[in-house]
Design brief:
mainly alpha; membrane; cell membrane; transmembrane helix; 18 helices; disordered C terminus; about 500 residues; about 0% strand; about 85% helix
């Protein structure tokens, strides 16, 4: 009964999460299409520089306590309150630090506009610090409907405000308004959805073990984040803000929707896997199924984007952004490769392997920095190619590393990943060939015909028994989601 209840809760949570993220991806695409025509690459270059600091601060602001509170076998209301105040105080402190650092940032970059942008965006630390444990509480309880509503509403209202400011001639301030509006709406949404307000800090309620795990996650995330920002820094320093704007838009056109799918799915996977830590057969089944779901549902669309990068850039960004096409293609390939190893990160979190995650991250960060250093000698495109090469190297290292420290269905994961890469490669190649054949008809025809050709070829893989088994597993889970949601709605 407990097993059935957990599966049903996970299925319902996945349904809400996938629906919300589909809506957020649409909003993100609308944001790219509209704002790219109202703003300039320079505006996005300024935002990219500030968001490097915001992202760094967010690691400290969360302090790994979201994952720690979800992973904890038990969590009292007093412990939850204590974690809330820790996150809130860290957020306020970071806001002050960024406010004070805005003037040196303007002097270092030589961009006076960036001072005001950094000062206003410092408020995001306060908003997110107040929201952290409300979000974690909803995730821990698998109450993902209010979380989904808050996320979609924040993205929609933030985009609407940004468009109004951009149309009024606000320039990069539209991007600032978008960030702050989204953060405010999300905070209000999770507080209302969570249905609780924090009490006073309870000294008798110990959170030491969660803070200890959180510290290891902070250290790992810092290393990982630093490695992720090396490319942004290299492109900005060596090739200027306009090239950085092209790089930034190409990156976000792929990685933002990708993150909006993977990260919320973590809110379903992590509490489920944490409860199955001692049930190895079921744990392995969930991990394998998660990789197949991520790989096929994300990998095939990314392969189509890689094959159709030229018309996609024209449609999404406009003719002025044509130089972004090769960047977009390589980011799509990199996104597919990194998705294959993403379930490994969930295993680290679910089993509380913070120290091992830190060591693995340190090792792979060195590899990534080395790849980017070499790639930068070949221009901006070389940097993106280097990132794709890094992810191709990281994936087998990730599985090998995990298999040394914890039981893992390594052979099944390797086999599933190879099937995913195979069908994605053929689908992407078919999309490219079909799109090129109708290039004279315009970008919309290229995307339509190319996507149809790629999907048809992917569907043809069902003649292979292994692919039919994969499809059966995915369809079974989708039926479970729909059936259980109808049951929940009827009751």
């Amino acid at each position: 009964m407990a097993s059935s209840s957990l599966a049903h809760a996970a299925a319902r949570g996945s349904l809400f999460t996938l629906g919300a993220q589909a809506a957020r991806i649409v909003l993100q695409l609308v944001s790219v299409v509209v704002l790219a025509r109202l703003l300039t690459p320079h505006d996005y270059g300024l935002l990219a520089i500030v968001l490097v600091l915001v992202g760094l601060g967010e690691i400290f602001r969360d302090f790994g306590l979201t994952s720690a509170s979800i992973q904890a076998p038990t969590l009292s209301s007093g412990q939850r309150d204590n974690l809330f105040w820790i996150n809130a105080l860290i957020g306020m402190g970071l806001a002050v630090l960024m406010l004070l650092g805005s003037w040196p940032l303007g002097a270092v970059t030589g961009e006076p506009e960036i001072v005001g942008m950094a000062q206003w965006l410092s408020l995001t630390f306060v908003l997110n610090g107040l929201a952290t444990q409300h979000r974690a509480s909803l995730m821990r309880a698998l109450r993902l409907r209010p979380l989904a509503i808050a996320d979609v509403a924040s993205a929609a209202i933030g985009l609407a405000v940004a468009i109004v400011v951009a149309l009024a001639g606000g320039g990069f301030w539209a991007l600032v308004a978008q960030q702050l509006t989204a953060g405010t709406v999300a905070l209000v949404g999770v507080v209302i959805g969570g249905g609780w307000l924090p009490g006073r800090y309870a000294r008798h309620e110990s959170v030491r073990s969660m803070v200890s795990l959180g510290w290891n996650l902070v250290a790992a995330n810092l290393v990982q984040y630093g490695a992720r920002q090396v490319d942004t820094i290299v492109v900005g320093v060596r090739f200027g803000t306009s090239s950085l704007g092209l790089y930034n838009r190409s990156f976000h056109l792929i990685m933002t929707p990708l993150g909006q799918v993977r990260s919320p799915l973590q809110s379903v996977a992590l509490p489920v896997l944490a409860r199955l830590q001692q049930d190895l057969p079921r744990f392995d089944t969930y991990v394998t199924a998660a990789q197949l779901a991520l790989g096929y549902l994300i990998g095939i669309p990314l392969a189509l984007v890689a094959g159709l990068a030229d018309p996609v850039v024209v449609i999404m960004l406009g003719d002025a952004w044509a130089d972004a096409s090769p960047l977009l293609r390589m980011f799509a390939i990199a996104g597919l490769l990194t998705t294959l190893s993403y379930v490994g990160y969930w295993v680290y979190l679910a089993r509380g392997l913070g120290g091992q995650l830190l060591r693995f991250t340190l090792c792979t960060a060195v590899i990534k920095i080395a790849c980017i250093a070499v790639g930068s000698f070949f221009g901006v495109v070389g940097v993106v190619v280097a990132i794709a090469v890094y992810h191709a190297i990281e994936w087998p290292i990730s599985l090998a590393w995990l298999s040394r420290i914890t039981p893992m269905p390594t052979r099944r994961l390797y086999a599933g990943a190879l099937r995913i890469v195979g069908v994605a490669t053929f689908a992407g190649t078919a999309a490219w060939a079909a799109g090129a054949a109708v290039a004279a008809l315009g970008p919309w025809a290229q995307v339509g015909v190319g996507s149809a050709a790629g999907l048809l070829l992917a569907a043809a893989a069902l003649v292979v028994p292994a692919y039919r088994r994969d499809a059966g597993s995915l369809l079974g889970f989708m039926r479970l989601m729909v059936t259980r949601q109808r049951t929940a709605d009827a009751s």
